[in-house]
Amino acid sequence: MAKLLKNREILLVVAIAVLLAIIALRFPAFVAPSNLARVYNDTSILVILALGQMAVILTRCIDLSMAANLALCGMVAAMLNNFFPGLPIPLIIFAAMALGGFLGAINGTLVWKLNIPPIVVTLGTLTIYRGLIFVLTNGKWINAHEMSDPFKALPRLVVAGMPVLSWLSFLMIALMFLVIGRTPLGRAFYAVGGNPHAAVYTGIDVGRTRFFAYCLSGTLAGLSGYLWVSRYAVAYVDIAAGFELDIIAACVIGGISIAGGIGSVAGAVLGALFLGVIKNALPVIDISPFAQLAISGTVIIIAVAVNARAERRKGRVILKKAEAV
Amino acid sequence: MADAQISPRNIPDRLEGRGARLLKSWEALLVVVAAVIFLGNSLASPYFLDPWNLSDATFNFTEKAMIAFAMALVIISGEIDLSVASIIALASTAMGYAVQFGFDTPALVAIGLGVGLLCGLVNGVLITGLDLPSIVVTIGTMSLFRGLSFVVLGDQAFTGYPESFAWFGQGYVWWVFSFEFTLFVVLAVIYGVLLHRTNFGRAVYAIGNNQTAALFSGVRVPRVKFTLFLLTGLLAGLASVCLTSRLGSTRPSIALGWELEVVTMVVLGGVSILGGSGTIPGIVLAALIMGMVTFGFGLLNVPGIVMSIFIGLLLISVIALPILWQRARRRPVH
């Protein structure tokens, strides 16, 4: 039982349940299954992005450019649709993911080949990617009437009771479970983040592993770009500005250690859901949406403090065991 | 993070002379770059060399450079503070709020500096007191501080600052030398002495090079780091006073994205992002270069967001070029 309580994923489930219970006391309609499904659907994009960020953070790096990458890919997807309305939607999604993967690969190459600290690389590419949207569009918007109907309809399309957007996030969660848990690359993420020197001696190429983590986060950002633009039916320079903080917050809340090597897919998903529930509950309990940024900030700080304590305790336990033996 | 490669092979038999080292230094390169940009600007526009135009151009960098001095020490000590722009926003909001209650200029300045100091205190306590990684903490406080200004202001703006308050951002000390530029020079001297001529400065380098070794040589690592974050908060508060006074209004989006420009300035100035090296003259030169580039682009009517692409490229290439250069030089030896 004690072990169960120390498990971060279960703690998070409890925290989310408590949060929902508190909201339900005043507003029972919020926890109706149909509304919860709506909340999940609203959080789907954050879930997908958090999965990509998790892979990067696991390798002891960080990707601050995800939101800018999303915005650029979303804009390119919208422009493709605008110029060639006949283009099949899967092709547009593929193009967005490929572009996202390419932008991620640029980050990865700079980190891998030039050994530039990840935070500097992604701070730089963050402004470059967002600036490119302006160069591409001259600051013009692409509005709903300039997008084709199938382009806008796909994420909303209901299949077996759930919108495609939710299904896509489930698919990505399942894929990440496989990549992280069942492939050499997934294990390499943990090895590189846990101890880069040890990883080298076990035959893992640290730089290459980080490169792939960035490609993964970039590809997921590209997919999210299409989803974002089609869901909100508008594309402009500033979409998802500052969203990189929400993504990192979701990871940190989900127990993914910023020092690398610690974290799980379930943690990232639950961290994103925690933020999603707060975000959707704020208007219901009549708190100004302007408070959301301050709340995310507070939650990040608390989560980091809690994580750091948990990690330290773990270190001590191992030492004690060693002494006992 | 990348680990520095130190092997016995790289230690030379004898050090180069002072003159040769000075000529090959990063700062020498910056002087050349600054001279080229200055020449280019004066050739491109006939209005550039006017003393008043040059004086106007300094406003492009003075506020950011104030924070860059403090940020340089933080980065040299191996930490980072991404919350500086949000501290500006919160301090500015606090000053705007105080104006509604009829506070006068001295009180407003005290409030601006005080809020900056308080924000620095929060960062310092979280980072050194609870021993948390500075990058995540300051990402958190970055959204917290700006979030608080959004809570107070929403989509509104504070205006109506007293007339005497405008002096900090718009006043001149003597002839073309604005208050902000004078402050920039004074701070450069203070920080130059602090970093290069005091025990505290040596301690900052020691911590950045090897924190454990610094601890064992008797450096009070947490206390030094705490002071650095406090100073960064204070200078962000000072920058907030200047910026608010110059703009005459406060919106929650004030100084948005400045943390990036400040970090770029520091890195361009030759401070290693991994800590342990960098100089204040380098920061001064980097500030001048960035100011002149922005001003030059402004004369050419380049929009701000396109300038930010350039700054992003500058940030990456400034770090990448020395690495490529070193690699190209080292290759024949192997």
TrEMBL record, chain B:
Keyword annotations of the record: Cell inner membrane, Cell membrane, Hydrolase, Membrane, Transmembrane, Transmembrane helix, Transport
Highest taxon of the lineage: Bacteria
Membrane topology: Multi-pass membrane protein
One Pfam match: BPD_transp_2
UniProt cross-references to InterPro entries, sorted A to Z: ABC_transp_permease
Subcellular location: Cell membrane
Assembly, per entry: The complex is composed of two ATP-binding proteins (LsrA), two transmembrane proteins (LsrC and LsrD) and a solute-binding protein (LsrB).
Listed transmembrane segments: 28-49, 61-77, 109-128, 135-153, 173-194, 226-248, 305-325
PANTHER family the record matches: ABC TRANSPORTER PERMEASE PROTEIN YPHD-RELATED-RELATED, AUTOINDUCER 2 IMPORT SYSTEM PERMEASE PROTEIN LSRD
UniProt protein name: Autoinducer 2 import system permease protein LsrD
Principal subcellular localization: membrane
KW Acetylation (keyword) present: no
Organism: Sinorhizobium medicae (strain WSM419)
Single GO MF descriptor: hydrolase activity
Role: Part of the ABC transporter complex LsrABCD involved in autoinducer 2 (AI-2) import. Probably responsible for the translocation of the substrate across the membrane.
Record keyword Phosphoprotein present: no
